[in-house]
Design brief:
Largest sheet: 8 strands, antiparallel
Number of strands: 16
Mean pLDDT: 89
Helix content: 25-40%
Number of helices: 19
Strand content: 5-15%
Distance between the termini: 66 Å
Length: 634
């Protein structure tokens, strides 16, 4: 809105526009109504200071004033601010050195360390150097610091609110401060329908232009326009800006202002807010109130509460209309079982067909609120989405981002690279079975079948490894994430098994196969004096074909293990660091097995509690276990 360089900045034009746009605030209107003031009394501007007055002030102070403040005085010798805690900036003859009357310097200097920044050091010395500009305020001070300057000779301006207990607000120059105050003046009146002028009309035109830029894939240009409009409080800017932030992962909590109060946007935006709200919750803490951040009617509030409940229990689905909605439904089915790369390709291809339910929606933000599809839209994919022309707009499509899932199984050997907190994992694959069939094949007796993916706080591991309270000590029921491989095998993956290994009571769940083959893999990495364990068992039609367990260099086997999988053949001459990778590669080559890294890491997949992987001890067999209770010492 305003020129960039001080030499070309027209203070007279800027201040005259501000004065002409000024309308009384609520407090001013009350005083005018009571007759205690006139409009002339409430004028913002003052007559300009003559060069002689400015020079006299500089001689009295012993310093030449910074350029932007000097030019301001030449346009208006003082200024009334009717917002914030600074009420009036004094004339040239009224300004004086602050002198640190409250002895702030020692308190700030005591906080300095060898790691303090240059800005922190400057702030500590500002109090005794600063020039005080305000003559009326609410215990607040406008301070120009001659020790904090830039290449143009401008002094930084600090506003210190003495009642707040906060650090001062810093502005790089007096001009920057006045521009921000002008923006605040606009922002305070933006909701007033009668507040219309050339500035508001230009900003609203910029918002409409930003909408077109965003829909055409030029989202960074749109963000610049909306950021400027938001500084002036233009009503539509914030909701649009937050949509861009959400899809570019540019912030934490996403509130969309008044847009959520409009029913046509509720289903698109509230789920995103609900998902962000749940990510901020912590296990065991009392549920926090779901705040929409704007006034809504009862219908929207009830709809928001219902959406929150569905996002919380994992049952919410993003379901837009039209061709894009059909593509989203197909993508959901792919991502539901782990194929997030295919899901994103389907969404990507359908993006040009997306159309908004209203003029203030810039993109299908609702994707982020879906427990299954939300994790599919990574930051890189969100940027690709924003750069893709939508809603009938023309423009070049961006280069597609690479797929996320590596082929095969060797990625499992990448320690601490896929969100697994422990050094062991185990998996069951069943050939030709649908994932929905796994509860009947390996699910616990009387179990409820597949459970939706749980919502989880940000930074928390997505899978639960706790032993069930009703389990016998010898039992080992796995909580597995269920999905489907690209080659058509259903799988159940336990990414955090109990700290045990296949032992004397182990019964491979591969024997639960009824038709095709089933494969079980169980790996525990070695540590200290505990050897690594690698178990593989293969069954077909419910009968075990072969199995082996490799502990360190010792092998226990049953049945004829194929040469391609024989550990003694595979690991001959292989370094210990590559043993796991070598064995995983052999299993992949033999069966064509894979696992979806992204879906597992993000907790997208439904869960299943299996039957115990251990049998009960038989007569004459002993079983020992230790229970450890951790508590506070009294």
């Amino acid at each position: 809105m305003i020129e960039e360089t001080e030499n070309h900045f027209d203070w007279q034009q800027f201040l005259r526009r501000w004065q002409e746009e000024w309308v009384p605030g609520e407090d001013d209107r009350e005083e005018l109504a009571e007759g205690g003031l006139t409009l002339a009394d409430l004028a913002l501007a003052a007559p300009p200071a003559a060069e002689e007055e400015i020079a006299a002030a500089e001689e009295r102070l012993g310093v030449r004033l910074p350029p932007s403040y000097r030019r301001f005085l030449a346009a208006s010798n003082g200024w009334r601010l009717d917002g914030g805690s600074i009420y009036r900036l004094g004339a040239a003859h009224e300004i004086d050195w602050f002198g640190d009357p409250f002895d702030m310097t020692p308190a700030y200097q005591q906080g300095l360390t060898e790691r303090s920044t240059e800005q922190e050091v400057l702030l500590a010395g500002m109090w005794r150097r600063a020039l005080q500009l305000e003559t009326d305020s609410d215990m607040s001070y406008a301070l120009l610091d001659p020790g904090d300057t830039d290449e143009d000779g401008e002094w930084a301006l600090y506003v210190y609110k003495g009642w707040s207990g906060e650090f001062p607000d810093r502005y790089p120059s007096f001009r920057a401060y006045m521009q921000r105050m002008y923006q605040s003046f606009h922002s305070d009146r933006a909701r007033d329908p009668g507040f219309v002028n050339d500035t508001t009309r230009a900003l609203d035109a910029d918002v409409e232009r930003a909408r077109e830029e965003a829909l055409g894939g030029r989202w960074e240009t749109a963000r610049e326009l909306l950021t400027e409009a938001h500084c002036y409080g233009r009503p539509r800017a914030w909701g649009m800006l937050q949509q861009l932030a959400a899809l570019s992962h540019g912030g934490g909590y996403y509130g969309f202002g008044g847009l959520v109060a409009e029913p046509r946007y509720t289903d698109e935006l509230v789920p995103v807010m609900a998902a962000a709200h749940l990510r901020d919750e912590r296990p065991g803490a009392s549920p926090r109130r779901f705040v929409l951040g704007t006034e809504t009617d009862d219908g929207v509030t009830e709809a928001a509460d219902a959406i929150l409940a569905r996002v919380r229990d994992g049952s919410y689905r993003y379901a837009p209309d039209g061709a894009f909605g059909r593509a989203v439904a197909e993508a959901w089915e792919s991502a539901r079982w782990g194929d997030t790369d295919t899901a994103w390709r389907l969404i990507r291809a359908a993006l040009p067909s997306w159309s908004p339910p209203g003029p203030d929606l810039l993109a299908p933000v609702g994707l982020l609120g879906d427990p299954v599809l939300g994790p599919v839209v990574t930051r890189e994919r969100g940027l690709e989405l924003l750069a893709t022309p939508r809603a009938g707009r023309d423009g070049p499509a961006p280069d597609p981002v690479p797929d996320l899932d590596p082929p095969g199984l060797c990625w499992l050997a990448e320690t601490q690279r896929w969100n697994a907190p422990h050094g062991s994992y185990r998996c069951l694959w069943v050939e030709g079975a649908e994932p929905e069939a796994l509860p009947g094949l390996v699910g616990e007796d009387g179990g409820a079948g597949l459970a939706p993916p749980p919502s989880r706080p940000a930074g928390w591991f997505p899978y639960d490894r706790r032993q069930r309270d009703d389990s016998a000590p010898w039992e080992d029921r796995a909580v597995v994430a269920v999905g489907r491989t690209g080659s058509g095998w259903a799988f159940g993956f336990d990414t955090a098994p109990r700290p045990s290994e296949p032992g004397n009571f182990f019964v491979s769940p591969a024997a639960a196969s009824r038709g095709g083959r089933a494969v079980v893999l169980w790996i525990r990495r070695g540590r200290d004096d505990v050897p690594a364990v690698f178990h593989l068992s293969v069954a077909e039609g419910g009968e075990e074909l072969y199995a082996y367990t490799l502990r360190g260099t010792d092998v226990e086997r049953t049945g004829p293990v194929p040469e391609a999988l024989d550990p003694e053949q595979l690991l001959h001459g292989v370094d210990e660091a590559d043993r796991e990778r070598c064995l995983l590669a052999a299993v992949h080559d033999e069966f064509g097995l894979s696992l979806p890294r992204h879906a597992l890491a993000e907790g997208i997949l439904p869960h299943l509690t299996t039957r115990s992987w251990n049998r009960a001890p038989r007569e004459g067999e002993s079983y020992a276990y230790v229970t450890v209770h951790v508590g506070r010492r009294l």
